[in-house]
Amino acid sequence: MNQTNCFHCGQEFEKERIFFDEKEFCCNGCKSVYEILNINDLGNFYELNKNSGVRPNSENNDQFDYLDTPEVFDKVVSFSEGKTTLVTFKIPVIHCSSCIWLLESLQTLEKNIHYSQVNFTRKTVQISFNSEELPLSKLAKFLTNLGYKPIISLETAEKKEEFLDKTLIIKIAIAGFAFGNGMFFSWPEYVGGNDVYFYQYKNLFRFLMFLVAFPVVFYSASDYYKSAWYGLKNKMINIDVPIVIGIFVLFGRSLYEVITDYGSGYFDTLCGLIFFMLLGKYFQKRTYSALSYDRDYKSFYPIAVTKVDFNGVQQNILLSELKVGDRIMVRNQEIIPVDAVLIKGEANIDNSFITGESASIPKKAGDKIFAGGKQVGAILELEVIKNVNQSYLTQLWNKETFRKIESGLDTMTNNLSKYFTIIILGITLLAGIYWIRVDFEKSFQVVCAILIVACPCALALSAPFTFGHIMRILGRNKFYVKDALTIEKIAKVNTLVFDKTGTITHNKKSDIKFNGKEISDLDLENIKTLIKNSTHPLSKSLYDFIEVKDPYFEIENYVEIAGKGYTGKVRNHVYKIGSAGFVNENSIDLETAVYIKKNDEFLGKFIFKNEYRSQLKEMFSALKRFKINILSGDNASEKSVLEQIISNATELKFNQNPEDKLQYIQNLQNSGENVAMIGDGLNDAGALKQSNVGIAIADDSNSFTPSSDVIMDGKKITKINDYFNLCQDAIKIVKITFVISLMYNVIGLAFAVTGNLSPLRAAILMPISSISVVIFTSAATWLRSRKYFEI
Asked: Rounded to two decimals, what is the model's pTM?
C-alpha cells in the first residue's frame, strides 16, 4: 500500500496514519465515517467520487446543547408537531454529488430520521426527524461527526438570502481597480517613442503591473479555478476549464516577458479580461436571482382567506393582506396558509404535505397549528400568530418534485455545453500549433482569445431566462405555473381531460330548485352550517342559494368523502348531504342534485341546472388539435347540452368518482398520451397528480393545491388555448436562442482562430453575448405574449 491521501476525505496525511480494512485514514473521524457507511451498506459513496468525503470536525460537540432550549428550538426549526420536527441546516462544506447522496441517505444511517433533502445551490439540507428520540442537538452532533457541521446563526435564522453576492462585488472591484491602474502603468508602452524617463523606469512600471494583476489572477478569478477543479475531479469538463487555461496561458506568458525583459506582457489585458468576465458573471447571477423559482409570496396565486371579525362577519381577503392577530376560517380539506392558534372548532390536522406522514393529529382550543397542515373535518376558526410567508407554501407545492427530474432543454443545454467545451479545446490545440509555427508571439493571444470567446454562457442562460419571463407573463394573466419544467410539459400535451362541475360550469351560478318536504328554518340553518365546511362547487352554489342568516354552529363528527358527500351532527341532529347513493336513496331522474337526509329521514333534494361559462364553444373549437375528454361526477342529464358545446369531444363520461377519474387518466397515459387534467383542486386531487400536467381551477378560492402543476383563475379558462400556445412558443424561443448562441460562438471563433480578435475584446464580447440573449428573449416573449394577452 502506498497511499498519499486519506481514503475518505482525500486530504494529505499530516501527523498520523490510521490503518483499517486495508486502507489509510488521516484521523479517527474519517475512519469512523468509513465504518458507519460500510456497516449500513453505503460503501458506494466512494464509487460516486473518489476522495469526496469531508473530514469530521474534532471540536467539542457540546457546543450544540443550546439547541434544545425551547426559545432557541422554536427559532431554528420550521415545523414541530408531535414527534415530527423539520429543520433546515446551512452546511457550507457540501461540494459534490457524493455529499448530496450521503446527506440524502441519512435515514439509512439513523433510524429516527424520516427523510433529508439537499439544496445544493444554497448549501442547505432539510431534515425531518423524530425529535423525541433524537433531540436537535444530537442531530447537529450526528451531522458534525459525519463531517458536515451545520452553521447555525440565530441572527440570520429568519432573514432571506441576500440578493447581492458581496464577495463577487469585492472581486469585481479589485479587478476593475487593477484594470484601470494597469492601463495607466502600461500607457508609456503603448505610446512608445524614445522617452528616456520611461526607459529608465520601465521595469518598475512592469513590476507594478505585475503587483496589481497578482490579486486579480489569484483571488478575483478564484471561482473559475474552483469550478474547473471540481469539474475535473468529478471527471467532467465544464465551461470554466477553457477559461482557466486561457487565464494561466496569458499570465504565464506575461510573467515570462517581464522576467526576461522581452516585453511588457499582457497584465493590463488580463485584468481587463477577468474584470469583464466577472461583470458577465454578476449579470448572470442577477438574472438567475430575478428568475428564482423560490419566489416571494406575491408572485404566486393570491390565495384568498376568509377573515372573520368578533361579530362573526366574514370577508374574503388576499393572503398578502393578512396580519398577526387576524382571525380566519379554514374549511374541510383546506390547507392552513399561516401559523395560527386554534380558537374554535374540532381540529384534525393532516401534516402529510410537511412530514410525508398522513396521520391526523387532533387539536384543542389554544393549540398552535403550523402552516401547511390540512384540516380534516369541520370548519375551524384560527388566530394568526405569524406573518405570511408563502414561500413555505411554495415548498409544499414542489414537495412531490423532490425526485430528481431534469428537463429536456436543461439536458440539451448541459450536453451542448459539455461537447462544445471539448470541441473548443481541440480547436484551441490545433490553432495553437499553427500559430506557434507562423507567429510565436501572437499564438498566446490567439489561444487566449479562442478560450474566452467560446464560453457558452449565453447558451446556458437562454432556457432559464426565457422560461422565467414566460412564467411571470402567465402569472400576470392568472395562470400560475409551479416551475419551468411545467412549461415544457404543457408544450408536449396532446390530450385534455376536463372536469365538468366548477370547471366548465360556474361555481356560484346555478338555477336551483328544491323538491321535497317543507324544510324549517332550523334545518336550513343546520344544513347551511354543514355546507359551509365543504369546498365542492355544488356546495358553494347551494350555500349562496339558501337564504337564512349566516350560521356558525358547532359541528360534531364531521366526515366528508370526496366527490360523494358529507355528514355531521349540528344541534343534536345528524345530517347526510350528497349524492343519492351517499344518502342511500334511489334516483331514476337524469338530473344533477344534492340529496338531504336528517336523522335517517329523507327531506328532499336540491336540483341544479348548471350554467356553463361563456364562450365555451369557441374555446373548444380553438382546441381542435387536442383530444378532448369530459369527466363528470354527475349523471348524464346534460349530455346533449355538452355534445352541442363540444362538437369535437373524443369521449364524455359521467358518474365518475375521484378513483374513476384517476384510472381514466392512467389508461390514457398507458396508451401513449400526454395528458393535461383541468379540474377542481381538492375533489380531483388524485387525477391532477396522476396527469402529466395538473391544472387546478380556482374561483376566488381559499384552497391551495399541492397536487397540481398549475393554479388558474376559473374566469380565465376560455383563454387556455392561449396559455398552451405561449408555452409552445417558449420552447421555440429557447431553440432560437440556442441557434443564436451557437452562431455567436462560431463567428467569434472564426475571428479568434484567424488572429483578428484580442483576448480583451473576447472578454468584452462574452457578457455582451449574454446580454444579447436576454434582450432577444425579452423582446421575443413580449411580442409573442402581446398576441395572446394585454401586457
From this structure: 0.64
